[in-house]
Amino acid sequence: MALVLVVEDEPEIAEILEGYLRRDGFRTERAANGRQALSLLRAAQPDLVLLDIQLPELDGLEVLRRIRSNGNTPVILVTARTEDLDKLLGLELGADDYVTKPFSPREVVARVKAVLRRTVLPEVSRPIMRVGPLEIDSEKVVARLGPGRLELTPTEFRLLETLARTPGKAFSRAELLEAALPDSDALERVVDVHLKNLRKKLDAAGVGEMLETVRGVGYRLWAE
Asked: Which of 61-70, 102-111, 151-160, 195-204 has the lowest mean pLDDT?
C-alpha cells in the first residue's frame, strides 16, 4: 500500500492522523520538523506527504519549495491559517490540495485517497496487461479473450483491471470497492454482486476458474 509521510509537530495530531491512515491500509512515517521531513523524504521515498505549514526549523512552505525543486511527490498542506493568501501560495508552489485545522481525520484520509488516485495511479498504470489468456486494455477500456471481447460494465472492467495489476494477490473487498467505486457510499457487499456477474461472464468465456474467492479476505485473479 501507499506510504504517507505525516509532517506534524503536534504529537497528538500526528498520532491521530497516522491511526486513521493505517486503519485504511496506508503505511506511514512521521516527521516533527521540516529538516527531518526532507531527510525522510529522501530515505523513505513516500507516495504522498501530508505537510503542516507551521513547523519548527523549516516551515511547511519552505519544505514544499524544496520538495518541488527535486520532484513531483504529491503534497497535501495542513494549515491552521485561514487566510486565502496562504492557501493560494501553497497551491502556487505546487501543493496538490490543502486542509484547514480543525479538520476531520476521515476527511484528511479521503483527500489523501483522492490525490493519490489522480496523481500516483495514472503514472503506474499499464495501458495493456496480459494475464494468462486475458488481455486488458486500460486505455480503450476493453478486455479480450483471444479474438473475442468480454462485454463488461465499467465497474466490472475496473474490478478486473485492479485484480489483473497483481495476479495472485488477494484483494480485500474494501480495496476493490475503492478501486471500482471510489466516490460511492456503496457497502462492501456490493463488490460481491459485481464479481458474481464478472465470474459468470468469465465462465461463459471458459476462464471462470481464473477468478477465485479467498475466504475471509476477498478475491484474486490467477494467471493460469
From this structure: 151-160
How far, rounded to the nearest angstrom, does the alpha carbon of residue 109 sit from its chain's CA centroid? 10
Main-chain phi, psi angles of 71, to 5 degrees: 175, -170
Neighbouring residues of 211: CB distance < 8 A, sequence distance ≥ 6: 163, 195, 198, 199, 202, 219, 220, 221, 222
Kindly write down the DSSP assignment for every residue of 26-90, as one continuous string: -EEEEESSHHHHHHHHHHH--SEEEEESS-SSS-HHHHHHHHHHH----EEEEES---HHHHHHH
Average pLDDT, the chain: 85
Model-wide pTM > 0.70: no
What are the grid coordinates assigned to 141, written together? 477500456
Residue 170 has pLDDT above 60, yes or no: yes
∠ Cα 173 179 181 (to 5°): 90
Residue type, 163: L
* DSSP type of residue 159: H
Instruction: Check pLDDT > 80 for residue 65.
Output: yes
Task: Answer yes or no: are the C-beta atoms of 21 and 109 closer than 8 Å.
Answer: yes
First to last CA, the chain: 25
Spatial CA neighbour of 130 closest among 31, 25, 224, 198: 224
Task: Please name which of 35, 52, 54 lies closest in space to residue 43, comparing C-alpha atoms.
Answer: 35
- The sheet with strand 218-221 has its strands ordered as 171-172, 218-221, 211-214
Q: Residue type for 79, please?
A: T
